[in-house]
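Task 17 of the worksheet. Students: predict the tertiary structure of the chain below and write it out as C-alpha cells. Keep your answer in the requested format; marks are given for formatting as well as content.
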Amino acid sequence: MPAHVLHGDSFLVPQRLDALVAEAGAADVLDANRHRLIGSQTKPGELLAMCNALPFMDDYRLVIVEGLLGTAESQGRGRRRGSSGDSGASSTWQPLGEAIPQMPDTTVLIFIDAALSANNALLRMLTPVSQVEELAAPTGEGLARWVKSAAEDKGASISPSAIRSITDLVGNDLWTLDQELEKLALYCTGREIQEADVGEMVSQVREANIFAAVDAMVDGRPAIALKLLHQLKEDGRDAPQIISMVERQLRLLALARDAIDGGIPQSELKGRLGTSSDFVVRKTAEQARRHTMPEITWRYNRLLETDLAIKRGRLEPELALELLVGDEVART
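Model answer:
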C-alpha cells in the first residue's frame, strides 16, 4: 500500500518512521521530493495534488503528514458519547481515502500521530486503504525487556534491581528512560548498572513526576496522582510548592494547547512556553494534544481556587491537595 499510519508513543513513532522510510527506499530522496506537512494546516486538495505528482528525477516522492488524524480526535472531544463527533473531518477528507488506492506507486505517504482512539473517524476511513501500526509504550515485563535491550544497545548491561528502580522512578516515558540510560551507560562504563547508580544519576524524576501527576489528575486516576504527589513530598517539597508546580504545568499546558489549535509547529513552542528545555516542550505538547482548552482552563481555575483557600486559611495545605485531586476526578 502507498499509505501508512503510525500512531502512539512519541518515542516509538519517530523510530518506526525512520525504519519505514528506509524500508520503502525513500531515505535518500531529493529535497524536492520530500514533504513534511502539519495536519492542521493541510488542505485536502493540496495533499492530493502532492501525492499524485510523479517524483522529480528520483524513484520516490515522500510525503509525511503530522497530526492530521489528531485533529479529528480533538474535534470529537466534549460531545456526548455516541454522537457523530468528528463526522465533519471525515467528510472533508473522504476524497483522500478514495484516492489512495489510485496513487502512483512512487508515492510514499505516511501519517504520524499521537495515540488515537479506535473510533477516530479519520483512522476508520484510512484503515481499509493504509497499513496501520499502533505503537504503544510497553508496560510491565515488556517495559523491563525494553530497558534491558536499550541498555545493551548503548553497550551496557543493567541488573534486574536497577531495571525495577528506573522504571519505578520514570515509568514508561521512553524518551526519559533512553536519556537516563545513556547517562548511566557512560557513568558505569566497564561494569553493570546497579540500583545505587540509578538513584544517584537519574535527574529528571521530579519533573517527570509532575507531568505524570497532572496526567493522572486530568485522566481521572486519583490513586496514581496522589502517589506521585506524595513522592514529591518525600523528596522535600511541601504542599504549597507542589501546588505551585502543578499550576505552572497547567499554565504551560494552556499555552501549548492554544499554540496547537493555532497550527504552531512544535519547533516554535520553546519561545511560546518560555523554556529552553526540550524535555518540558515535548512532554507539555504531548499532554496538550490529549486535552481540550476548556478542560485545561477549568482545571487551572480550580487549582487557583484551591491555592486561594490555603492562603486565606480556609484549608490546610495537605487536605487541599487531596481534595484537589478528588475534585479533578469528579469533573472528569
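Marker's comment: The chain has 16 helices and five strands. The domain at 140-203 is CATH 1.10.8.60 (Helicase, Ruva Protein; domain 3).
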